[in-house]
Amino acid sequence: MSETLLRVTNLHKSYGSRQAVQAVSFQLEQGQTLGLIGPNGAGKSTTVSIICGLLAPDQGDVLVGGQRVEPSNHAAKRMMGFVPQDLALYDNLSARENLHIFGALYGLGGSTLKRRCTEVLDLVQLSDRLTDKPATFSGGMKRRLNIAAALLHTPRLLILDEPTVGVDPQSRNAIFDSLEALKRQGCALIYTSHYMEEVERLADHIVIIDHGKVIADESPAALYQRLPAKAALRLTPQAPVPQAVLQSLCQLPGVTEVATEGQDLLIGLNNAELAQDVLLWLTQQGCRANQFSTARTSLEAIFLTLTGRALRDA
Ligand code: ADP
User: Fold this and answer.
1) Atom in ligand 1 nearest the alpha carbon of residue 45
2) N or C end of the chain, less CB within 10 A?
3) Which CATH class is domain 231-296?
4) 96-150 residue pLDDT tens
5) pLDDT tens figures, 258-289
6) Edge-to-edge strands of the sheet including 18-29?
7) If 0-12 CB within 10 Å is exposed, 13-18 middle and 19+ buried, where does residue 159 land?
8) The ligand 1 atom nearest the CA atom of 212
């Protein structure tokens, strides 16, 4: 049975009169990945900064591996690696020299540091850039070097704050590959993002935060259960669909909602296989479609369901 690695209890933090985080609690099991998702300004960075011990909460506490995160507890901090949003690299030193500085901060040296530098650069797919300076790197490569630096001391928990913001698609994929490899090695991860599809790819557990409060805390599968529709059928009818047909359509088994968008008809379905039956039924009512498409509903819609707002423009 997996063991709880991180326990975050009742965190509160205000900046002046602004309450950034309110009563935030969640936990993370050993080796699992937690996606912390919310729109910009939701309180994600504040939460992860408190977890890492970079910011003191006004109230609440954080336990990692049974150790309380507080300024004097170095054992707690050593169990974690943090990749902040703002890059922390010396642009004019080589990748290796940068890693040596970070390694020294963690008390690493000699053959251990050399071995770890090789291992972490391999993990982030930058082995061939060991002697190059970050000044010559793309934004994504710099981010990968930052991830490597946070891994030198072999943390049990790696915390990444929006690691793909401003990153090119190639580096984004490399980052995901690295995180998947880390997961296989048993490292627990916390990953903040405002992109649900990124979090979905990695997370065993998703915590949604909005206006500083946790509004959902469950597995992706459980969140899918909350979606009002599992799939959507969009079609452009050849002629306007009569009101009576629309009303009967709403009553069909498995149809969760019917809406119009311009000329298109949007039909929410309990499962994607129902799309064929619905199209056939519409044809039988004399309603033919010029074109149609089906899509599985994404978890992105969950935020809309929970708050009435879309995640990106919240
Ligand atoms: P997120 O990471 O989800 O974008 P943050 O934790 O950065 O959210 O911010 C949460 C709230 O706290 C926002 O309203 C933000 O403007 C505010 N905030 C964050 N940092 C500071 C700060 N240093 N001083 C004042 N307000 C801050």
Assistant:
1) 2
2) N
3) alpha beta
4) 999 999 999 889 999 999 999 999 999 999 999 999 999 999 999 999 999 999 9
5) 988 889 999 999 888 899 999 999 999 999 99
6) 18-29, 4-15, 59-64, 67-68
7) buried
8) 10
Structural domain spans, the chain: 4-220, 231-296
Domain 4-220 has CATH 3.55.30.10: no
270 alpha carbon to ligand 1 midpoint, in Å?
38
Structure tokens at 34: 């937690």
Give the DSSP per-residue string, 186-253: T-EEEEEES-HHHHHHH-SEEEEEETTEEEEEE-HHHHHHH-S-SEEEEEEESSPPPHHHHHHHHHST
Mutual angle of helices 95-105 and 110-123, in 10-degree steps: 120
Q: Are strands 255-261 and 264-269 parallel, antiparallel or unpaired?
A: antiparallel
Give the pocket of ligand 1 (CB within 6 Å). Answer: 15, 18, 20, 38, 40-46
DSSP for 44-91? HHHHHHHHHTSS--SEEEEEETTEE--TT-HHHHHTEEEE-SS----T
Residue 80 CA, ligand 1 centroid: distance in Å: 22
Instruction: List the residue whose alpha carbon is closest to atom 21 of ligand 1.
Output: 15
Q: What is the mean pLDDT of the chain?
A: 92
pLDDT value at 226 more than 60: yes
Q: How confident is the model at residue 314 (pLDDT cuts 50, 70, 90)?
A: low
d(CA 51, CA 86): 17
Please say whether the beta carbons of 237 and 290 come within 8 A. Answer: yes
- Which of 15, 82, 83, when mutated, tests ligand 1's pocket best, judged by the most ligand atoms within 8 Å of its CB? 15
Residues 6+ apart with CB under 8 A from 91: 133, 134, 135
